[in-house]
Design a protein that fits this description.
Structural class: mainly alpha
Largest sheet: 2 strands, antiparallel
Shape: globular
Amino acid sequence: MTDAFSKCHPAVNFLFFVGVIGTGVVIGHPAYLLAGIVTGAIYYLLLNGAKGLKMILGLLPLYIFLTAINPLLNTYGATPLFYLLGRPYTLEALLYGGTIASMFVAMLIWFGCYNKVLTSDKFTSLFGNLIPAISLLLVMVLRMVPNFIRKTQQIIGARKSIGKGAQKLQEGMTVLGALTSWALEGSVITGDSMRARGYGSAKRSSFVIYRMTVLDRLLVVIMAALMAFTILAASLGQMSAIFTPALDIAPVSWGVIPYTAYLLIPVALHIKEAISWHISRSRI
């Protein structure tokens, strides 16, 4: 069973992730950050299954590290927990570190969902005619990290099969050199290939298989309404959170409801699709 939100129009996917990532990097209230992490983790697990759980659990040490290290660098705060080398380790700095770590973890999770949903062909269909050179560059950049990871695993596996890899430092430099050569050669080949095809020399045509449906338009309206209520709540100060030098966090109010509902749109569509699929199977 495929993901229902992934089958929506690319513009709907793009607008959703713009809203999620745009608000996720500016909202520092713990309740909203928790909603972002939980909903993002649920959707990431729905997209990746059991393999996604390993990635989610792998973010826990990163979260602890980022939270614990902030009071070592930032000594602001009115409540010292203890002193380390004469510098106060304050509660406010610890909570602020947890906020920054939560924001970072939430963005990693949602960007993982973005890479799974908004594939390169969808991105090109949206911006290929408007900004062909930039859209190609962005697609190549977004593909770079997963391609590097996959190629690194292939190189390491190939060297292990011939008995290499005894000295980790030397082995790492060898793999890095091979990976760099592969990346440079690939960029030259890609550039020559696109130049031979006349990419960017004139207005290009494209075969667009995506069409806006009634559901897509309805989702745009729902997302706009929920985001409007979220912005209204922010303008009323419901998302205010100050950690240093003293804690001043706004109480949780109704603003968290539209924000969480916005984040749960892909999960709701996935559950709806799963229910419909099981009903269809039961009728066979």
